[in-house]
Specification:
By secondary structure, the protein is of the alpha+beta class. The protein is 42% helix and 17% strand. It contains 9 helices and 10 strands. Helix 5 runs antiparallel to helix 8 and helix 8 packs antiparallel against helix 9 (275-288). The N and C termini lie far apart (55 Å).
């Protein structure tokens, strides 16, 4: 196991040299997930996060990683994300079993570590508004439609239909982070967004609904977070449909929970213990009911 870990760090170091011309002097494992493993590498130029995505996980993984890193590059030009590693316009390095990509390490504290729920979601609202500012499709490399991912998620049919109705009510598209929560924002004097693995193109209300889906405490907290996020977002970008946002907020907990049963077939989803998800969706609907008649 130790030898394998050493080899993986060596591969990450090779990727760092290929993508930035930098030699690593040390490296350590940061995170090992289902489809990617990330390492923190030190070089004379500073620290960098380099991640290896498994080639056997997805047919079009290289194009997806290029899309992920081009979205991060776009955000970095607006000073809300670290600069990805790139050389000759290329964001990825290919090894036998992985696609490698990386970015400059941000030295700071996670947003979730230092703020109250209301302050966290106010900050997320500002970050989302900046991220959703004007962009040109030719600045990104084939980003997926985020709505398609939701439609293809294994959830009860009624939830799928509800998501479909909400998404069809609006056509204005933006670049979405796709998983904008307090663990993906680093405070380093100002907020910096990391981990664009779920990014895509979609309506802005979807971004906010996904973020609000992580609030799993009291109805009062849900209302407070909703108000903070929406008010700070609208202060920068008033183009927001609150009715669509409210509808999506009632369905998104199902989407967020889907990762827990990602390998379950549609025939078996109705047999799962989904009571916590039902409670979360119901709590969000109840907490937001005072803001308007969201549901048809």
């Amino acid at each position: 196991t130790e030898n394998h870990a050493f080899v993986e760090v060596e591969l990450a170091a090779i990727a760092l040299f290929d993508l930035a011309g930098l030699e690593a002097v040390s490296g350590t494992l940061m995170h090992k997930g289902r489809e990617k493993t990330s390492y923190l590498l030190e070089s004379e130029a500073g620290f960098f996060v380099v991640s290896g995505y498994e080639l056997n996980r997805e047919k079009h993984i290289q194009s997806r990683v290029e899309a992920i890193m081009s979205a991060m590059a776009w955000a970095s030009r607006r000073n809300i994300s670290p600069q990805p590693l790139t050389i000759d316009g290329r964001f990825t390095h290919l090894s036998e079993r992985h696609i490698w990509a990386g970015y400059a390490f941000v030295d700071g504290s996670l947003l979730m570590q230092s703020r109250s729920p209301g302050e966290i979601y106010g900050c997320l609202g500002e970050v989302a508004a900046t991220l959703h500012s004007s962009w040109s499709p030719d600045e990104l490399r084939s980003p997926p439609e985020l709505g398609d991912r939701l439609r293809n998620t294994v959830v009860p049919e009624g939830v799928r239909e509800g998501i479909q109705r909400a998404l069809s009510g609006r056509s204005s598209k933006r670049l979405l982070h796709g998983d904008l929560n307090a663990s993906n924002v680093v405070l380093a004097g100002f907020p910096m967004v990391i981990d664009f693995d779920d990014c895509g193109i979609g309506i802005p209300e979807l971004e906010l609904a996904i973020s609000l889906g992580y609030v799993n405490t009291s109805p009062a907290d849900i209302r407070n977070c909703f108000q903070s996020m929406v008010s700070r977002y609208i202060a920068q970008s008033p183009d927001l449909d609150l009715k669509i946002l409210g509808k999506l907020c009632g369905y998104i907990p199902w989407y967020l929970a889907a990762s827990q049963y990602a390998d379950v077939t549609p025939e078996k989803v109705e047999t799962l213990d989904l009571e916590p998800v039902c409670w979360q969706a119901s709590a969000i609907q109840s907490a937001l009911s005072e803001f308007g008649p969201w549901y048809e």
